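Continuing the batch. This is chain 6 of the set; chains 1 through 5 are on the previous pages. Same settings as before, nothing changed between runs. Recording input and output for traceability.
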Amino acid sequence: MATITSQQILKYKNIIIQNDKGADAFVTTTNPILDLFTETRKKIPEDKDEFIKLVKKIELAKNSDPEMFIKLLKFHRLIEKGNGMKGIYYICMIILKEEDPDMYEYVLNWSRQYPKDILRLARLSSMFNPTESSKGERIQMDVKNPDTMPISCKRSNKINSWAKTEMKAGNIKMNQQQQTVVSLGPETALYSHLLFDTIKFIILGKMFDPKANLMLFKYLGYETNHFAVESKIIWKYVEHLLQSDPEVNILINA
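Output for chain 6:
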C-alpha cells in the first residue's frame, strides 16, 4: 500500500465531518488496518446497520493486508491493563473462520488472551459455523435426539440447540456399533489439550510450572452453567487423554 502524507489526507473528500460539538473530525485514516485498530467500542453494536458497517470495516482490513490483520487480532487483546476490545476480537475471528478455517485454527492457538476466549468462540462457532478440528478428534457421548429432548431448564435448551446445529453440520454421527460419536471443534479440542497438559503438570508435581494454567479450571467451574455443553465435551475428552497417556497411567498405578 502506497504511503500517504498528512497533506494528501487533507485533500481527500468526505473524510472530514463536524462532530456533535462542531469540531472538525476525521471519519477514516484512509488505511483500513489503522481504521480497525482505532475501533474502540467494547460492545458489539445491536443496531443491524451499525453491525453490518463494522463487519465491512473488518472485511476491508482483512482483504487489504491479511498479515497485518492477523497481527491486529493479538493487539486488540493486549491494550493497556489487558482490557482489549473483546467484541472486535470475536467478530474478527469468526469472519476469519468463515473465510480461512485453517488459518483460524492456527491463529486461535496464540491470539486469545484468556481461556474464556476459547469457550466464547466455541459457543459462537456452535451457533453459526460448527466445524471439526483439523486433527479429526472425536469422543463417544450419549447425545439424545434434540427433537425428543425435554426443554425443562436452561441447560437442556443449550444442549438441545447445540445438538441440532452439530447434527446438521454432520459433527454428530452414529458408528457401526450404534454409538453416538461427537467430533470436537478446534476450540474444544484446544481447550481440552491445554487442560490435559495442566492436569499432567499437577500429577507430575509441577503445578507452578509457567506452562500450567490453573485459570482453565476457573472457566469450567463457576461458569459451567453458561458453558454447559462445552464443559461436558472438554471433561469427557480430557478423561480420554488421561487414560491414554502412558506416563500418567504409570504414576496413577504406582
